[in-house]
From TrEMBL:
SUPFAM superfamilies: PDZ domain-like. This is Type II secretion protein GspC. The lineage of its organism: Bacteria, Pseudomonadati, Pseudomonadota, Gammaproteobacteria, Enterobacterales. GO terms for biological process: protein secretion by the type II secretion system. The keyword Cell division does not apply. It comes from Escherichia coli. It is found in: Cell inner membrane. Its main location: membrane. Residues 2-93 form the Type II secretion system protein GspC N-terminal domain. Gene3D superfamilies: 2.30.30.830, 2.30.42.10.
Length: 227
């Protein structure tokens, strides 16, 4: 009898595994932080243009927002994920209506430009402090730590006020002045939001950039060496 019982004539009993119900993903709430995602650039090091308190700053994954204790967790094509107070929140790209304000108000920029000197005063790339040059050579996107661009609104965005960052050495060495308004980047209309995105994409391979600024009614081209 023992031999027969060991033959498993009707097959060996296999317990049926009860399927484990996977929890449904919890939707990530949109952040309530007073910040605006203006643009996203992809490349070897994706970056996000985030506006805080009227100032735009470029952030990389893992960096902390300047005015909030929030960290960039992920950078996606139309949003970024923030870690804030132990929770993950979503910051979506600003609606098209916000980003096209500058494009639809190009006439305002043209009117100001017509009042300026026809030929801007050009400048060759100036020598910048060694420590700054080394930092920019390692990561050109760090330029926004030295020079801040704040949208100037006049019936929409008409340019960017150029201001020094926490370290103003590059601002002073490049010849910027308080009150300068940037209206073009590498001869491209800087009031078009796409110009900022293009700058972020191209920065890693650029040796210098040229900002056209309005200063007391005159246009000035200021070149900044990145290497």
């Amino acid at each position: 009898m023992q031999l027969i019982s060991q033959q498993n004539w009707f097959g060996k009993y296999q317990p049926v595994a009860t399927p484990v119900k996977q929890p449904e993903p919890v939707p990530v709430a949109e952040t309530r932080l007073n910040v605006v995602l203006r643009g996203i650039a992809f490349g070897a090091r994706p970056g996000a243009v985030i506006e805080e308190g009227g100032k735009q700053q470029v952030y990389l994954q893992g960096e902390r927002l300047g005015s909030h204790n929030a960290v960039i967790e992920e950078i996606n094509r139309d949003h970024v994920m923030l870690r804030y107070q132990g929770k993950i929140e979503r910051l979506s790209l600003a609606e098209e209506g916000h980003s096209t304000v500058a494009v639809t108000n190009k006439k305002a920029v043209s009117d100001e430009a017509k009042q300026a000197v026809a030929e801007p005063a050009a400048s060759a790339p100036v020598e910048i402090p060694t420590a700054v040059r080394q930092a920019l050579t390692k990561d050109p996107q760090k330029i926004f730590n030295y020079i801040q661009l704040t949208p100037v609104r006049k019936e929409g965005i008409v340019g960017y006020a150029v201001k020094p960052g926490a370290d103003r050495s590059l601002f002073d060495a490049s010849g910027f002045k308080e009150g300068d308004i940037a209206i073009a980047l590498n001869q491209q209309d800087f009031t078009d939001p796409r110009a900022m995105i293009a700058l972020m994409r191209q920065l890693p391979s650029m040796d210098s950039i040229q900002l056209t600024v309005l200063r007391k009614g005159a246009r000035h081209d200021i070149s900044i060496a990145l290497r």
